[in-house]
Amino acid sequence: MLGTLYGIGVGPGDPELLTLKAVKVIKEVAHVFAAASSKNDYSLALDIVRDHLPSHTPVDHLAFPMTFNPERLEDAWQANCEKVVEVLRQGKDAAFLTLGDPLTFSTFIYLMRKIRKRLPGVKVTSIPGITSFQAAAACANMPLAEGEEVITIISGAKGGDRLKEVVDVSDNVVLMKTYKQFPHILGRIQETGLQDSCCFVSRCGQEGQIVEHDFQKLQAMQQPHYLSLMILKKRGLES
Q1: Average pLDDT for 104-133
Q2: Are the beta carbons of 51 and 14 closer than 8 angstroms?
Q3: Given a cut of 70, is residue 66 above it in pLDDT?
Q4: Please, what sign has the CA dihedral across residues 175, 178, 181, 186?
Q5: Distance between CA 168 and CA 193 in Å, rounded?
Q6: Cα end-to-end span (Å), the chain
Q7: β-pairing verdict for 94-98 and 31-37
Q8: What is the C-alpha R_g of the chain?
Q9: What are 83-118's pLDDT values in tens digits?
Q10: Domains of the chain (ranges plus CATH)?
Q11: Model pTM score
């Protein structure tokens, strides 16, 4: 008998945004895995659930390099897959903690694919979580979509090159992962003429939270925190 793998979305950072179902599963599983940078073993996702994690539950950090190098990424995915497979083969249920939602721009997606390939019969259950863009919209009291509006969610990890492509067919756009290519993304926003209709949110629900609408202040900002995104509205922020 193989154990069940749970992908648990722990929300955007505020521990009070954990779902009841996530807490229930965290208390019941035999083993917990949490993603961490290969540069250290810190996991915000683990911190979020700390108060609900039984003291006897083993916890392993899975290191993922912050790179687009396919060979390094493949090595990391394979090594982490084997660690989880080892636990599941013992018949133990395991949980992988991920920020936001496990099926939205999440490392869990790739881990799940690897594990399913290694263990074709394994049961995988995803526990949805509140996404960062839902929490950011709440922080800014900004509707993400209404009526017949179209909303598009894209990654800015490689810059904002897809913004021009989607803004023509969307009323509202969420740009995730804006921290690394921030100046490039700001340039793309200016090209679309949406510099007066954007909202930047960083560290939503955490100490140091920033909600900023002033584009000039954004241009003067140093590289933002890892947990940062932008919401763009073609109808304007006050419409």
Answers
A1: 95
A2: no
A3: no
A4: positive
A5: 12
A6: 56
A7: parallel
A8: 19
A9: 999 999 999 999 999 999 999 999 999 999 999 999
A10: 5-127 (3.40.1010.10), 132-233 (3.30.950.10)
A11: 0.91
Taking residue 154's Cβ as centre, other Cβ atoms within 10 Å add up to 19
* Residue type present at position 60: D
Contacts of 204 (CB under 8 A, 6+ apart): 12, 13, 14, 132, 135, 136, 139, 227
Count of alpha carbons within 13 angstroms of residue 158, beta-carbon side? 6
User: Biggest alpha carbon distance in the chain?
Assistant: 58
How many Cβ atoms are within 10 Å of 202's Cβ, its own excluded?
22
Q: Provide the token pair at 24.
A: 């229930």
Cβ–Cβ under 8 Å, residues 41 and 33: no
Q: Tokens in use for 93?
A: 């249920």
183 in helix, strand or coil?
A: helix
145, HSE (Cβ side, Cα atoms, 13 Å): 13
Amino acid occupying residue 63: A
